[in-house]
Amino acid sequence: MPLSFRKVLPLLACILSLAVSWNASPAFAQATSPQSGVTSSVLPTGGGAALLDPSDTVFLLLDHQAGLFQTVKDIPVAELRSNVVMLAKLAKLMNIPVITTASEPNGTNGPLMPEIHEYAPHAVYVPRKGEVNAWDNEDFVRTVRSTGKKTLVMAGVWTSVCVMFPALDAKVAGFKVYAVIDASGDPSEMASRTSLARFAQGGVIPTSTNAVLSEVHRTWNRPEAADIAGLYAHVSPNYAAVVESYKKAQEVARGQSRGTAGQAPNQ
Questions:
Q1: What is the rounded CA–CA span in Å between residue 138 and residue 198?
Q2: Are 246 and 253 in contact (CB under 8 A)?
């Protein structure tokens, strides 16, 4: 390793370490985690006013059923399921309520994917009586309202039906509604594009799993930072390379520091 690089590497690792562990001032750090009792993530600067407020959010995961997955053509099913798992893990980590539902799990649409309740054991399942639109079911709407949250983050299969219908109805009912497109799926690209247009026309906000993660995250200056980094690696596997390179830089820097400390002083 060139001498100049060996001299710079410890400094690089130090800078990276400071970037991750910096104790940011309250003016620039997001309000702390939901467990602390903070009721809003909007900062004095106005930052966060247009973003998700985790303390006012509930995840609605709709009809992620085995049979319906077989009809999805606008996104690889493995990627769709992985993104749903990330949402479940994020909800558990950040104590965000989760509600799941299925119109008829004993029919051809099949059972819900089990990973949701596995990774978000606090999730509440609301069975429906065959209604295609979850918002037609009184128990489902009552359960949503009982959370006291006004921001609904929805994902499901199909996007154009199982997400679209309750999303539009919830928007009319006064909720702020997000549709997580890459945690949802449709039978065709055309159906997906049409859904995006109709969401926009109806005031529903299209988003992605990565955007939801980042809006809930907001700052590295929080006790869940290491777990959140793991979720970024989940939703974007290439991000794992960033973490690995950082860890390696730290290891090399520590080795260089020990080597320097062990050298005898020049006579």
A1: 25
A2: no
What is the CATH architecture of 59-217?
A: 3-Layer(aba) Sandwich (3.40)
* 93-150 confidence digits (pLDDT tens): 999 999 999 988 888 899 999 999 999 999 999 999 999 999 999 999 999 999 999 9
Domain locations in the chain as residue ranges: 59-217
Enter the pTM of the model.
Answer: 0.80
**90 neighbors 96 (Cβ within 8 angstroms):** yes
Which two three-digit tokens encode residue 204?
């529903």
Distances (CA, A) of 187 to 71, 180, 191, 195, 206: 5, 16, 7, 12, 18
Backbone phi and psi for residue 246, each to the nearest 5 degrees, phi listed first: -65, -45
CA–CA distance, 126 with 183 (Å, rounded to integer)? 19
State the Cα–Cα distance between residues 156 and 45, nearest whole angstrom: 35
Q: Are 101 and 129 in contact (CB under 8 A)?
A: no
Residues tagged active-site = 162
